[in-house]
Write a structure and sequence with these properties.
Elements lengths: L13 E7 L4 E7 L4 E3 L21 E5 L17
Parallel strand pairs: 3-4
Antiparallel strand pairs: 1-2, 2-4
């Protein structure tokens, strides 16, 4: 993810992770500063749509991939036999 030229991102401030359930994993990126803002992508995009405007000065930004978009893979349902 590109960073704005005037705002350095340090390793301690960066979190690339994901939240998992039995059905899917939702990857996200977090850029630190406080307060926090959650940026949701358009229905035809993924979290990378925000990369041109990040980091947001003075904010911790969380940009998740929503289910079925980007790296958010929906796992096939397992039905009992």
């Amino acid at each position: 993810m590109p960073a704005a030229a005037n705002t350095p991102i340090t390793a301690s401030c960066r979190d690339d992770g994901g939240v998992s359930s039995r059905a899917m994993t939702l990857p996200y990126d977090v850029l630190c500063a406080v307060p926090t803002v959650v940026l949701l992508h358009a229905g035809v995009a993924d979290r990378s749509m925000w990369w041109d405007v990040l980091p947001l000065a003075g904010f911790r930004a969380i940009e998740p991939d929503l289910a079925g978009f980007g790296e958010a893979v929906i796992r096939p349902r397992q039905f009992p036999a």
